[in-house]
Amino acid sequence: MSASQTLGGPSRCGRVLGPSLDKIIKNAAWRKHSHLVSSCKSVLDKLETLPDAALPDPSSPLLGLSSSDADFVLNPILLALDSNYAKVADPALECVFKLFSAGVVRGEIDGKISDSIMYKIVDSVCKVGGIGEESVELAVLRALLSAVRCPCVLIRGDCLLQVVRTLYNIYLGGLNGTNQICAKSVLAQIMLIIFSRADEDSMDVSITTVSVSELLEFTDKNLNEGNSIYFCQNFVSEVMSASEGVPDLKLSQPVPVSQNGESKDEGEEIGSEKMKDEVELCPGGISSKIREDGFIVFKNLCKLSMKFSSQENPEDQVLLRGKTLSLELLKVIMDDGGSIWCSNERQLQCSIFMSLLTKYRSGLKAEIGIFFPMLILRVLENVLQPSFLQKMTILNMLEKIAGDSQIIIDIFVNYDCDVDSPNIFERIVNGLLKTALGPPPGSTTTLSAVQDITFRHESVKCLVGIIKSMGAWMDQQLKIGDSDLPSGSESETSAESHLTPSAEDGVVPDYELHLELNSELSDSATLEQRRAYKIELQKGVQLFNKKPSKGIEFLIKTKKVGNSPEEVASFLKKNTAGLNETMI
After folding, report:
1. Whole-angstrom Cα distance, residue 285 to residue 351?
2. What DSSP string describes 17-70?
3. Residues 68-100: pLDDT tens digits?
4. Where is the composition biased (Polar residues) (predicted)?
């Protein structure tokens, strides 16, 4: 057995690190890189003492090592990458490739955890491409593709965007045509990896290898230097196959991420500008980290494809190539896309409906009165056999509605106090109460215990939100009423300015409370009277549908109908909504 094969000791991690550290020592400039050489030797000594089968440390990024040991043994690799010296950076990049392809690295690498050793290494790999060596560029491509391909590692958030951005830069400014073709091929392969996983919402998926010749079918034909296509195809295929045989445990399924129906993350555009706007999945939706990252990448590709050139340089060829590449990558994603692009109709449906309810409810009263029961209440009131994802989407949407006091009051006034409209507010509250109480004892339900508890918790949150919104609205109106009491005309103007938000604020009121321009108390009384009138009328209609004589008697008694036959006939003719035509 040769000396190089025994370097690093018997451990799996040592067998990968040992030869690379030895090569770094041999290639280093002893005076300039004395600290690096010393660090490599210390790590080699440490690796010799590590057993082959150490107990796993869940917090460690390296298999078989503790978290502190992992930081220690990876430090010389980080120093070599940061040395800006090709002869030591090249073996360090080769080591990074082997660590990922052999499944030694595991866990999550996120830009939000920037102090982790693996994030620092990926960050350094992205930066080392600026050394200006063709071999280093290819080594960077190999290391980054193996990192994203590794099924034991989830590279996400800012870190994932940085990887994609680095590959963009190599494609746009690579040292030769072959490297540029390789960068484009690696980018396309990474897109297939990201969205194959997003489609299955799993790390353990079958991934096809990209066809380099198809990528160059319409563009970049000028980059085809002799056997470049064959070289790049073999380059990508070798990296992909090197990561296929990882024998150890795959990264566990990421925990779903949901914040009131919105998934947010901050990252950078694939170019150089900071992306500070929110990443919105469909409101009311639940997503995983895998899918969240997929949507972030997709959104950034779309933004980059729409960038415009500056007036100073209207024919910017670099920008044009970048936009073209973005469109090509989007085509790769869509051509290989699965059900993820068409299976969330209910979330899109709720997103559109929420926008209509928020911004256009004043002009769509009748339409909302029809669709709210069909889309929202039907799902909410299904207590025994609901779809978990569907009902969670609805509950997240209702939590948003509950947090907006203006929408809550508008719904109550426009529907529950209108004799010709459904009792939407009442049904929302009753549906939430039923969900909070859970399935009745002895009933058969498709819900698991965890799902039932989740529904109860979310329902209570919605109910609390409704109560808080109503209380806040009443407090506001009482304060307005107090401030309006001293003067007549001034109080009228002040009340209207407070109770009627302007269209400039993005909210159009759906009702006018000030039927009489005096105190708010009379307005509240008017609402109570309207609601009481509707309740009595509905009770009379129910009685009529069971026994017409009792229904008419009740309506006459409550003064909803006059005593004369003509008045009763007129009522039956004008108020057919809800009345049984057979009984009429």
Report:
1. 9
2. HHHHHHHHHHHS-TTTTHHHHHHHHHHHHHHHT--SSPPP-TT-SBTTS-HHHH
3. 888 999 999 999 999 888 899 999 999 999 999
4. 486-500
